[in-house]
Amino acid sequence: MQTSNERKEKVVVIGGGIAGLSAGVYALNAGFEVEIFEKNRIPGGECIGWNRKGYHIDNCIHWLTGTRKDTELYDVWKKTGALTDETEYAPLDAFYTSTYNGKRATLWNDLKKTEEELIAISPEDEAEIRKFIQYVEYSKQCLFPAKKPMEMWSIKDYIRMGMNMKDFPKVMKEFGKISLEEYAERFKSPLLQKLMCDYLPKEYCTYSFLVSYATMADGNGGIPMGASLQMSLRMEKKFKELGGRIRYGCGVEKIVVEKKMATGIELEDGSFVDADYVIPTVDTGLLFGKLLSKEYMPKALKAAYENEKAYPATSGFQVAFAVDEAFNRAQDMSETVFIDIEPLKVGNRTFDRMYVKAYGYDPVFVKDGKQVIQTCINQTDEDYYFWKSLSKEEYERVKSELAGEVAKRIEKAFPLVKGSMEYLDAWTPLTYERYCHAYHGSYMSFVTTPYGKQIKMKGQLKGIKNLYVAGQWTNSPGGLPVAVASGKFAVQRILKKQHRDIEI
Ligand SMILES: Cc1cc2nc3c(=O)[nH]c(=O)nc-3n(C[C@H](O)[C@H](O)[C@H](O)COP(=O)(O)OP(=O)(O)OC[C@H]3O[C@@H](n4cnc5c(N)ncnc54)[C@H](O)[C@@H]3O)c2cc1C
Fold first, then answer.
1. pLDDT of 436
2. How far is the CA of 193 from the centre of ligand 1 (A)?
3. Which of 128, 276, 400, 438 could tie 432 with a disulfide, CB 3.0–4.6 Å?
């Protein structure tokens, strides 16, 4: 332990997204001096938003796992300043609605209501619908373990988890290796087939979808009011209040390794910052190959990058508009609605579905009687290559033409908005690549498909003693829970190495 006269050991964190801010807060709590280096001018990484024509466009939180106060993850959100007991959540009562051929079906947070609605839509699917609801119910037991990294679990921890999740193995057995596309075929109703496949990319393992819906239905996936960027700013505030220093506009060029120790980092301006410990939280595609030599990349991760079919990345082509505030009122459906569209060619693929999400539930997205709506067309590696192949001029032209096509399709689906829609912005997988160095513009980590294995990194790399990797890529499929917990876990791994108490 250090005495007050001794120099504090210094932790350097690379990246000021959710993982970096979390690592920063926990490292300060553990008594380290901490400095975060972030290439952008604001914190948050992918958990941000931006303004256009006076409207705020939210980039991130569709649901935040860990908003239920009795969960381990809530404790992490609270400790990092992201949430407080006073945080208010969006008053939403459903996951999403799918429409098809003039009919619609909604996944309500109230499972009973969903069950009744779906059976009324398709009585011939009753058995499959009841099974679906039952397995979503089981999936509520799947809570994110955020107390400590799994390699530090004791037998007792495993027994407790086994008891708390006693029905969840049934979900994995039945749905662990089946894609959403295959699952949807079990339903006879074309509308229900769409409903099952609309939200997550169709290659996703079905259990991921059940767990996502269960999180909403269990009141554990709220959307904090005030937008995603505000949550990142609350974490930054906490970090600074605890004495942390964050340097913006400070891209890291490489991690300097000498004699199996990371001695510090070299910044893009050529200066060197020394460190006792380094916690990189950036995308692993950038970490291995730019910041560190590719030789350090764990084998399982390398195999994933080499097999795009089994380990796809997922992103989106998105467009935001301002429309009348009354856009989605007086309709018995949720804020997020998937619609059929006249086929739209984006690059080499043609799409016949997209969603429209209305943000009027939070005043931060409302201005002068108008609210922001956003649309998204799912994109994957193939689409990323298309966007990447365009020149700067072509990219701008294609993006703008497609935004116009998207607008026409929204007007067709919701004739009331005709004439009142104001274009705000459009963005693509390249936006995430540029802004966050995200691999193929990915929102999360690799998609969990039936053909791949889940990536789980223990944070330490062979050949570097004092470096602890964090960030959403350490545990597929990533997302905010993985990111925030990984920051905590990286610090706990340091403490374990120092034979100190890991309770922080
Ligand atoms: C549209 C969208 C919607 C999403 N919705 C949800 C949702 O509803 N629920 C959910 O759980 N998750 C959601 N996610 C995923 C979530 O945003 C991410 O999982 C999470 O923000 C990742 O955090 P991170 O800190 O691991 O990585 P990042 O956010 O990528 O942070 C890494 C940081 O490192 C910085 N950086 C990169 N290179 C350097 C360098 N060389 N030097 C210094 N800094 C560098 C980047 O600028 C970035 O700030 C969504 C993501 C997107 C894009």
1. 96
2. 31
3. 438
Ligand 1 site, residue 134, Cβ cutoff 6 A: no
Q: How far is CA 36 from CA 258, 370, 437, in A?
A: 21, 38, 17
Name the helix (H) or strand (E) containing 105. strand 103-108
What sign does the dihedral 71-77-82-84 (CA atoms) show? Answer: positive
Q: What is the dihedral of CA 44, 47, 52, 57, to 10 degrees?
A: -150
Q: Provide the residue type at 216 as one letter.
A: M
Q: What is the mean pLDDT of residues 99-120?
A: 96
Whether 492 has a pLDDT exceeding 90, the answer reads yes
Nearest protein Cα to ligand 1, atom 15: 479
Q: Identify the H or E element spanning 279.
A: strand 277-280
* pLDDT tens per residue, range 232-251: 999 999 999 999 999 999 99
CA of 134 to the centre of ligand 1 (A): 33
- Domain ranges, ordered by start, for the chain: 10-73+225-308+457-497, 94-217, 314-441
Position 3 scores a pLDDT of 52
Q: How far is the CA of 442 from the centre of ligand 1 (A)?
A: 9
59 lines ligand 1 (CB under 6 A): yes
In this predicted structure, the answer to whether residue 253 has a pLDDT above a threshold of 90 is yes
For strand 33-37 and strand 245-247, is the pairing parallel, antiparallel, or unpaired? parallel
Instruction: Give the DSSP letter of residue 474.
Output: G
Q: Is the CB of 43 under 6 A from ligand 1?
A: no
DSSP state string for 331-356: SSS-SEEEEEEEEEEETTEEEEEEEE
pTM here is 0.96
Q: In the structure, what pLDDT confidence band is assigned to residue 104 with cuts at 50, 70 and 90?
A: very high
Q: For domain 10-73+225-308+457-497, give the CATH superfamily.
A: FAD/NAD(P)-binding domain (3.50.50.60)
Q: What pLDDT digit, counting tens, does each position of 301-343 carry?
A: 999 999 999 999 999 999 999 999 888 775 667 899 999 999 9
| Beta strands across the sheet bearing 33-37 | 245-247, 33-37, 10-14, 277-280, 464-468, 460-461
Q: Please write the tens of the pLDDT for every residue from 415-442.
A: 888 888 999 999 999 999 999 999 999 9
Question: What's the CA gap between 263 and 257, in Å, rounded?
Answer: 6
Longest dimension (CA), the chain: 75
